[in-house]
Every structure is written in C-alpha cells, then in structure tokens.
Amino acid sequence: xxxxxxxxxxxxxxxxxxxxxxxxxxxxxxxxxxxxxxxxxxxxxxxxxxxxxxxxxxxxxxxxxxxxxxxxxxxxxxxxxxxxxxxxxxxxxxxxxxxxxxxxxxxxxxxxxxxxxxxxxxxxxxxxxxxxxxxxxxxxxxxxxxxxxxxxxxxxxxxxxxxxxxxxxxxxxxxxxxxxxxxxxxxxxxxxxxxxxxxxxxxxxxxxxxxxxxxxxxxxxxxxxxxxxxxxxxxxxxxxxxxxxxxxxxxxxxxxxxxxxxxx
Length: 264
Description:
The protein is of the alpha/beta class. It has a single domain, classed as Flavodoxin domain (Rossmann fold, 3-Layer(aba) Sandwich). It is built from seven helices and eight strands. Strands 1, 2, 3, 4, 5 and 6 form a six-stranded parallel sheet that branches. It has a two-stranded antiparallel ribbon with strand order 7-8. Strand 1 (2-7), helix 1 (15-29) and strand 2 (33-38) form a beta-alpha-beta unit. It starts with a strand and ends in a 22-residue tail after the last strand.
C-alpha cells in the first residue's frame, strides 16, 4: 500500500508528532510505502491568490474556479501544487492528521485543500446532464483510494457525544469526511480521534498510540463510512435532494447521507 500522510501541526516534537511517528512506524512495519507532507515544515503557502495562476493576465479579474481549471488543463499550476497532486496520484491511501482547532482543521491544511484541489483535478470533472451531475460524491479522480482522518482534541469524548456541548464528533467532521474526502471520490474510513490530549500522560499515550497502530494495521480491511453515492439513484438530479423514503430510521440532517451498512 502507498500511504500519503498530510500532517498539519506547527510543532514536530508534540503529541501529534509522536502519533505521526507511531503511524509511520506501524505502516512501514507492515511493508507499506509512506510519504509525509509536513505542511509547517514545508512552509506551505495557505492563501489562494493571483500568484497561484501564473498565466492569468494582469488586467483580468481573478475567478478562482475558472483560473484553476485553465491552469490545470495547461499544466500551469505552481510547482508546489503540482508536487502535492502527484503525491495524491501516487497514493492509494491518504491520511489527513491535525489537531481540532476551533471545531475545524488548522488554516494551513485548509489552504492545502484550497490550492491542491484544483478544478479539473478534484472537482469540476465528469458529465453534467439530466442523469448525472458530475463525477463527485463517491466518484471522481480519487475513486478507488481510501482516506481517513487522525484528529486530536483537547475535550473529553463526552463533550463530543450526541448530547455533548461541543456537538457530536461525526457532525463536526462531516464537512471534511463527506465534503473534502468523499466529494472527489475517496472511500472514507471512520476517523481516529484522540481526546483529552492536553492531559495525556505516558501511560495513556501508550494506550492511544497502540490504538492508532491497530488502525494502521487494518487500513485495508476497516469498513468505510457508507456514504450514499450521488449518481447511484438515491438523489433527485439536478436538485440533489435525497429521495423520499430512503431515510435510515431516525436519521436527520448529516446522517441522511449515510446509508444502512450492507450486511456481509
């Protein structure tokens, strides 16, 4: 297996860094190839601006989608972006690792998505018609590849439970799992989340790192989140609403887009 880990933490000698080391060690022990994009170490440019589109005429108004599409088609994107796209093409499993800051990923990782996910590469692909609305949500360039999140959070697991004050962790991570990973076609595995990390002692770290190692050992066999594919008949095209009667009992909002797991 070829695994790309996109790592977003400003301190390599941190809990996140130690978990990254544990994940890499376990993956390599299993015979997998591993590449790491350490965004802070790379001094990754997070903000999209005119410099991302070298061929954009100086007097033309910047429209990011169309400029991205044009540069991608002409192989004109910047070298740093093209290098990360090549890593995504190379990998058959992609892991995004980050601390949960203000209920989201760090800005540098969001900036990696904004710049690397060019139009024509991660979105804006496929046929748009009365029966299809592009290759997305389970289809697209990343179809056939697996992806997952490794997330650290300072709060307790109860804080992120169904009745927890912070909101359920599956809801908080839905925009990333469904919108950033599933949208361009990844098969999305359940996230690995470590809680109460600000007070993690050595004994607890051994437990958490052991759990992470187990997840790395089972990357190929872990059942994915059963998100509904856009073009498999569950949605009304082109309005893209879930058809009536397909709801999993009790499901509302984000959970509507998760189907009943298929029995083995």
